[in-house]
Amino acid sequence: MDHVKDKGRRGSMQERQQIHTPTTEAGHLRSNEDGSVALSFG
């Protein structure tokens, strides 16, 4: 799928999460209290 290729071109999920607003084409990223990131679909 296309978003898998994008991850290689644009950098890791962690890098994108820090630079851009926490949203992706596939779903929404939310930062957890412990600093980890969860990707929720739908």
UniProtKB/TrEMBL annotation:
Residues 1-10 have a biased composition (Basic residues). Residues 14-24 have a biased composition (Polar residues). Residues 1-42 are annotated as: Disordered. This is Uncharacterized protein. It comes from Zootermopsis nevadensis (Dampwood termite). The lineage of its organism: Eukaryota, Metazoa, Ecdysozoa, Arthropoda, Hexapoda.
